[in-house]
Write a structure and sequence with these properties.
Elements: H1 10-20, E1 24-28, H2 29-42, E2 48-53, H3 60-68, E3 72-75, H4 78-86, E4 94-96, H5 103-111, E5 115-118, H6 121-131, E6 137-142, E7 164-165, H7 169-179, E8 183-187, H8 197-211, E9 219-221, H9 239-256, E10 262-265, H10 269-272, E11 276-287, E12 292-296, H11 305-309, E13 315-317, E14 325-331, E15 339-347, E16 354-357, E17 378-383, E18 386-391, H12 396-400
Parallel strand pairs: 1-17, 2-3, 2-10, 3-4, 4-5, 5-6, 6-7, 6-8, 8-9, 9-10, 12-14
Antiparallel strand pairs: 1-11, 11-12, 11-16, 13-16, 14-15, 17-18
Helix pairs in contact: 2-9, 6-7, 8-9
The structure holds pyridoxal-5'-phosphate.
Length: 408
């Protein structure tokens, strides 16, 4: 598990909760840096670059911090591109990897000067017809590797909507040739939560085979899938082993390719999952015939991963961390079934205690909503030991902001 200095203590989180109220997302800047440095260290012998997949967490301060430590940015919408530029990223350090967007959105990204990754034949052809080789592109391939902890987040399978199938290589080649497209990158992203290093290696071998069809390549982008531990004993992607094996394979291959090649990655979760803490308050303890429920002042409107992906988030009582452990089922206050965790051993919870969800940095706030007309939580960034408010809690005005009242 994490080093002590890597973790925000219970007492510290209680203070943050008292100062800024709950529910609140708390992010620890230095932990993001630690994770980035782990990646750099693992791939030190390869010409590797990392682009933070910002759909995991896009607060502008987090983006600015990530830019400040020298990491690039991976974006999936034109709005993420715009946020990245606003955060100060050089367009060259941004890669745009959308799927199922129209040509206009691709052109908008091109006009902003970022790296473009095209993920279907139709857009490839339209882009080629319009721009030919005047703007280099990357092509997202689907190598059909079944990987990922969950079917919903596994993107390499046959029925996946992502990427262009490697079986369509001939078709890609025809378009590239006839429109003179300049393909400088090949990309794959097989899905999230890959535990097995050899999956990456299989993918990369397929990518190597593809390179001979593309003479202008400058990089191969292997996307992400780096898994982090959500609880003690959870399997994690062995970054050092991955770094070593991949570096060997890549450097061996790169010798035979006629131009220098870079290895790109797009980690999201790996960089920001563990930096995040979601702090809530226990509203009620409700004992039924079979279960003791803790009802907290949040729900899947704020943290949907447990309900959407069956994800496990470790929950602790930070107000009573010496209390006797008891078995609780932690639920939200939404009028829908929203169970955060069944049968969890937690130090005795009293109404008013603060609970924390760990690993809440990635896909936490970012997937939140205003369901039940509840307000989105505040966000706090901890840097150099100080807590800074980086997003105010919603107010009722935010709920009404874009609504247009008509005469009735
Ligand atoms: C979501 C996504 C990632 C990041 O995935 P994580 O599991 O968060 O690391 C990387 N690349 C692309 C194209 C993505 O859509």
């Amino acid at each position: 598990m994490a080093k002590q200095s890597d973790v925000l203590s219970a007492d510290f989180l209680v203070k943050v909760a008292e100062e800024f109220g709950t529910p609140v997302y708390v992010y620890h800047a230095e932990k993001i840096k630690t994770q980035y440095e782990k990646l750099q260290k693992a791939f030190v012998k390869a010409d590797a670059r990392f682009f933070y997949a910002c759909k995991a967490l896009t607060n502008i301060n987090v983006l600015r911090y990530i830019n400040s430590i020298g990491c690039g940015l991976d974006t999936v919408s034109i709005q993420e591109v715009q946020l990245g530029l606003k955060a100060g990223f050089d367009p060259k350090n941004i890669i745009f990897t959308p799927n199922c967007v129209d040509l206009q959105e691709i052109i908008a990204a091109k006009d902003l000067g970022v790296n473009i990754n095209i993920d279907n034949i139709s857009i490839l052809e339209q882009f080629g017809n319009q721009f030919g080789g005047s703007y280099p592109i990357c092509i997202r391939l689907n190598p059909h590797i079944m990987a990922g902890g969950n079917f919903k987040i596994s993107t390499g399978h046959v029925d996946s909507k992502f990427g262009i199938s490697i079986h369509q290589l001939r078709h890609i080649e025809r378009i590239v040739k006839s429109t003179k497209l300049k393909v400088t990158g090949l990309h794959m992203h097989t899905g999230s939560e890959i535990k097995d290093v050899d999956v990456f290696l299989r993918g990369v071998e397929i990518m190597f085979e593809m390179t001979e069809h593309f003479p202008d390549l400058e990089f191969i982008d292997l996307g992400s899938g780096f898994k982090v531990a959500y609880q003690q004993g959870d399997p994690e992607t062995d970054i050092d082993l991955l770094g070593k094996k991949l570096t060997d394979a890549f450097n061996h291959f790169a010798k035979s390719y006629k131009r220098p090649l870079q290895l790109w990655f797009e980690p999201g979760k790996f960089l920001v999952s563990q930096c995040g803490y979601f702090v809530v308050k226990a509203n009620v303890i409700k004992q039924t015939t079979a279960t003791v429920f803790v009802g907290v002042n949040s729900g899947f409107n704020h943290l949907i991963r447990p309900m959407f992906y069956d994800s496990f988030h470790l929950i602790k009582n930070i107000s009573n961390h010496k209390g006797t452990e008891r078995i609780y089922t932690v639920v939200g206050n939404i009028c829908e079934t929203d169970t955060f965790g069944w049968d969890r051993k937690i130090n005795e919870v009293r109404e008013g205690d603060y609970l924390v969800f760990y690993n809440a940095g990635a896909y936490g706030f970012e997937m939140s909503s205003n369901f039940n007309s509840r307000l989105k939580p505040a966000e706090v960034l901890v840097k150099d030991g100080k807590a800074h408010l980086i997003r105010k809690r919603d107010t009722i005005d935010d709920l009404l902001k874009n609504q247009v009242e008509i005469p009735l």
